[in-house]
Amino acid sequence: MSEKIKSNKVSISKFFVYVLLVVASFLSIFPLYWMFVMATNHNSVINSVPPAFIPGSELVTNFTNVINTIDFMGAILNSLIVSIVVTIGVLFLCSLAGFAFAKFDFKGKNFLFVAILVTMMIPPQLGLIPQYFIITKLDWLNDFKAIIVPGLIDAFGIFWMRQYISSNIPNELVEAAKIDGCTNFRVYWNIAVPVIIPAFATLAIIKFMYVWNDFLWPLVVLREESSFTIQVALRGLIDNYVRDNGMILSGTFWATVPLIVIFLLLNRLFIQSLTEGAVKS
After folding, report:
1. What keywords appear on the UniProt entry (predicted)?
2. Contact assessment for residue 254 and residue 66, using Cβ atoms and an 8 Å cutoff
């Protein structure tokens, strides 16, 4: 009898967990669905009361207006170039730094690591003026280097890699590789990299999304329309006198699609990296 009661309690608990997950999933997906609905309707339908909750027939028209207003495809290509290059650079450099902090002993290691963590507490807006001054001196205005180079080192990326490597790569394995004659870089490349692929996926999603959505810094350093990233280009859809919300949300929706694709491609590795420590005995 007691086992039956326990079984019923477990079933009820699972039921509430599933209900909670369904509600959370709905709340997470609804903003994207709402944006799609608005992107497929005419401006008059969007401003109506009550608003429409089902997709309309203006998807092609609204997106055509976007293309006719801004260089949407060119901006998407610019954002892809910048985001991919920065993400690859961050994965390589931050994993190298994280490996060094996790497995090597050198003078000032703890101080340097704490200093890196402190930079995470400083709002990036405070560095806007000195960064702009440096970029101007280097004559990098209106150049992708002004966005790519400052983004190649990420404090969170170093912290994330250091913690993941510390918990997933035994020191004995590193020492055995050194005894066999491996250089430090070969230990990193042949031993660390295959193990930290899930951590790569997590950091790639976070960094790609951050660079893709960045608006302030590209707005400051990019001057010509041909070099605009997608977030800067979308600003051109806003008119001070006549606001076409269907066109604006159409551009916003299609600018979000690459982020969804990247997450779906790396979703399995992302979940694996977050649950890696939970399945260890």
Report:
1. Cell membrane, Membrane, Sugar transport, Transmembrane, Transmembrane helix, Transport
2. yes
Helix, strand or coil for residue 260? helix
No. of helices (H) and no. of strands (E), the chain: 15, 0
Q: Domain spanning 70-237: which superfamily?
A: MetI-like (1.10.3720.10)
Round to the nearest angstrom and report the end-to-end CA distance of the chain.
33
User: Three-state DSSP class for 2?
Assistant: helix
Q: Tell me the angle at which helices 2-39 and 245-275 cross, rounded to the nearest 10 degrees.
A: 150
CB 155 within 8 A of CB 119: yes
Are 252 and 246 a contacting pair, CB within 8 Å? Answer: no
Q: Which residues contact 207 (CB under 8 A, 6 or more apart)?
A: 86, 87, 90, 91, 151, 154, 157
| Alpha-carbon span 186 to 193, nearest angstrom | 10
Q: What is the pTM of this model?
A: 0.86
Q: Which of 47, 53, 19 is nearest to 33 (CA)?
A: 53
Fill in the amino acid letter for 17: V
Amino acid at 252: T
Q: How far is CA 72 from the centre of its chain?
A: 21
Residue 251 CB: number of other CB atoms within 10 A?
Answer: 25
Is 230 within 8 Å of 78 (Cβ atoms)?
yes
Listed in order, strand segments (DSSP E) in the chain are none
